[in-house]
Structure formats: C-alpha cells, structure tokens
C-alpha cells in the first residue's frame, strides 16, 4: 500500500485521495485536493510527469478519465483539463478556456466519452468536443434550461447516445441525438 511520505522519502504528500485511475501501461494515477502523482505498479516507484509552468504544484484534481487507449484527461480546479499521453506522461493538449467563461479560472467538473466524442461539464453547461491527433477540438456548448441554476457535478456515458448528469439537485439523462433532457425522479429508481 502506498503511504504518506516521511522526510526525504518518496511517497504521497497526504492520504486524502479523491481520484484513482489505472491506465493500460500499469500506471496508477492518484489525485487529491492538493496533488497529482503517478505510480508505476510495474516498477514500484513514482514516475516523473509534466505540469504546466503556470500551474501551482498543489493542485486540486477533480477527475482522472481515459479519453482513448493512449490519452488520459485530468481535470484541475480553477485551471481546466490536461490531456496526458500515457506513454510519455507529457501533456499533449489542454482546455483552459470555454465559451462564455472567464479565461483565467475555469473549472471542469467531469468528462465522459461516448463513441469518438468527449463531453465536459462546467457549471450548468456541457461542452462537446473530440480529440483529433491528441488535440482537443471544441464542438458545441449544450445548455439545458431545466437545470440552468444547477451545477453539473458528474457525467456518465449511457447506452444509445445518452449522457447521465449528476447535479446539486438530482440526476438526469440527456439524449444527445434529440437534445432532450429528462430529470429522474425517485420512484423511477424504486421500480427498477
């Protein structure tokens, strides 16, 4: 078990872990409210990786998600999203601006991948896009009037081009082809 580091020892800065992801290269991505670490399960040691020069070392990791077999997305509060190549652990691209949001302070709460499209949530909005040659290509902003006063905290890919949304007031489903949103009420879970 990975543990908190002692003086002059390699380890985790603390044990308050909020995100863990294991990639196809046997790396364990560990995120917390104040750090991101990558641990090689094969070599049993921490690996060096790239951070942007303008990003503080104590970062708040909101999510770690696979985009494809070679690319990992890491969401960082008040910064945006970093796309890492899992082979080199270098940043291939980033999202630091979104339509209609301040350019110096965006928070992307989550990311979901459906087919070749990526969906990210920021505040009450969803933004679509895609990764092309390891580069983010912005799609469209999706505004859902029914939840415009809520924060979309998490996303999950559903079947048949559905995107599940977790907000500060419940759960809903967005049918992407028809752009139709349906809130889920408690009795739908009771009858499942």
How is this structure best described in words?
The chain has 192 residues and is mainly β. The chain contains one helix and 16 strands. The chain has one helix spanning 186-190, and strands spanning 17-22, 27-32, 36-40, 45-46, 61-68, 71-76, 80-85, 91-95, 110-114, 117-122, 125-132, 135-143, 152-157, 162-167, 170-175, 180-184. A four-stranded antiparallel sheet has the order 1-2-3-4, with no helix packed on it. Strands 5-6-7-8 form a four-stranded antiparallel sheet, with no helix packed on it. The longest helix is centred in the C-terminal third of the chain and has 5 residues, at 186-190.
Task: Give descriptors for this structure.
192 residues; 49% strand; 16 strands
């Amino acid at each position: 078990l990975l543990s908190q580091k002692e003086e002059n020892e390699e380890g985790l800065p603390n044990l308050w872990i909020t995100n863990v992801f294991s990639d196809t290269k046997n790396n364990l991505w560990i995120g917390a409210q104040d750090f991101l670490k990558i641990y090689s399960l094969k070599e049993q040691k921490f690996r060096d990786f790239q951070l942007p020069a303008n990003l503080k070392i104590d970062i708040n990791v909101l999510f770690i998600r696979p985009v494809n077999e070679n690319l990992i997305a890491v969401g960082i509060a008040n910064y945006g999203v970093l796309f890492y190549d899992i082979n080199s652990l270098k940043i291939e691209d980033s999202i630091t601006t979104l339509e209609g949001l301040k350019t110096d302070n965006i928070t992307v709460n989550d990311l979901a991948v459906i087919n070749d499209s990526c969906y990210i949530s920021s505040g009450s909005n969803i933004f679509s896009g895609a990764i092309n040659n390891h580069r983010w290509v912005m799609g469209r902003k999706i505004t859902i009037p029914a939840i415009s006063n809520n924060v979309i905290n998490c996303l999950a890919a559903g079947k048949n081009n559905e995107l599940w949304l977790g907000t500060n007031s419940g759960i809903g489903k967005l049918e992407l082809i028809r752009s139709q949103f349906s809130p889920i009420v408690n009795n739908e879970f009771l009858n499942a």
